[in-house]
Design brief:
Layout lengths: L5 E4 L17 H14 L3 E4 L12 H15 L3 E4 L9 H5 L8 E5 L3 E2 L5 E2 L3 H13 L3 E6 L2 H12 L8 E6 L9 H8 L7 E6 L4 H11 L2 E4 L6 E3 L2 E2 L3 H14 L7 H8 L11
Parallel strand pairs: 1-2, 1-10, 2-3, 4-7, 7-8, 8-9, 9-10
Antiparallel strand pairs: 5-6, 11-12
Helix pairs in contact: 1-2, 1-8, 7-8
This protein binds (5S)-5-amino-3-OXO-hexanoic acid and zinc ion (ZN).
The site of zinc ion has 8 residues, from loops.
């Protein structure tokens, strides 16, 4: 089994300080959360930029400021900005961040009800556009799939030659109106991807740690962080991203699964070696 890659989704776009005061907004707060997540064992940081008041933004300039600050503090960690942004943003707005020399970014592979009247829109043409852009710019996509139909979409695009290898999936399970995160849901998803693909689980809310434990046992990888879950345990807010990563690192120790360094994560995922001259 490969070493375990822990991704930490430090900020998100929808979670606010009113939900958990450790949610970072400013670049200084982003660096604090990034550093603590990396110290605890994360090798990938999934980042949503925010304005100082917490408003989600896909501003290139804001991402550049945040990424440069994180890079200075966290060395060769893999920095993975979001192209999902926040619900309601246009694809033009969401993909603007891909103008930066990025190593990796998320690529959302289908539309989903997000609760109430909110819909997270990713049409087939949106997905194809994002895949083409990222491939042209050498940005490694993390294929976010919120349900099995999203995996099927990716498989169809692979067949059409529109989704080049390597393929690294994220199973985002437990959103209010999406697929939930039971063991049965997990196995259905992991058995549905190509044999040579890798995957990470993203358990929302109470699914975060049970899915992490399953992925650790079955050779998958894990994402945790305040974007996905604000609690360390029922009713106890997590005092930052560090404790969430530490919890997964402890589970990994329990199952004798060593953690991957950023360099090892790049190897496992089939990414290019890190080149700090050309990568932000
Ligand atoms: N904030 C969600 C609407 C991603 O980062 O690519 C989308 C999201 C997915 O978080
Ligand atoms: Zn995200």
């Amino acid at each position: 089994m490969d070493k375990l890659i822990i991704t930490c989704a430090i900020s998100g776009a929808e979670v606010m300080k009113t939900h958990n005061p450790y949610v970072p907004y400013t670049p200084v707060e982003m660096v604090r959360e990034a550093r603590e997540a990396v110290e605890a064992g994360a090798s990938i940081l999934h980042v949503h930029a925010r304005e100082d008041d917490g408003t989600p933004t896909q501003s290139k300039a804001r991402y550049e400021t945040i990424i440069r600050a994180i890079r200075e503090t966290c060395g060769d960690v893999i920095i993975q900005p979001s192209t999902g942004g926040a619900v309601g943003m246009s694809m033009d707005e969401r993909l603007a961040v891909c103008d930066l020399p990025l190593e990796m970014a998320t690529l959302d592979c289908g539309t989903l009800n997000f609760g109430g009247d909110a819909i997270f829109v990713n049409t087939e043409n949106d997905i194809i556009r994002a895949a083409k852009l990222m491939s042209e710019r050498g940005i490694y996509p993390e294929l976010e799939c919120f349900e099995k139909g999203h995996i099927d979409t990716v498989l169809r695009l692979i067949k059409k030659g529109l989704m080049p290898a390597p393929h690294h999936f994220s199973f985002v399970l437990g959103t209010p109106c999406g697929m939930q995160g039971s063991a049965r849901d997990f196995h259905f998803m992991r058995e549905s991807i190509p044999k040579d693909a890798t995957y990470s689980v993203v358990g929302i809310g109470r699914y975060e740690f049970p899915l992490a434990e399953l992925a650790i046992q079955y050779g998958g990888h894990v994402r945790v962080g305040l974007e996905d879950n604000i609690y360390l345990e029922k009713g106890v807010l997590a005092k930052g991203n560090r404790v969430l990563v530490e919890h997964v690192a402890a589970l990994a120790r329990q199952y004798n699964r060593p953690l991957a360094t950023p360099a090892e994560a790049r190897q496992i995922l089939g990414m290019e070696a890190f080149d700090d001259e050309s990568i932000l």
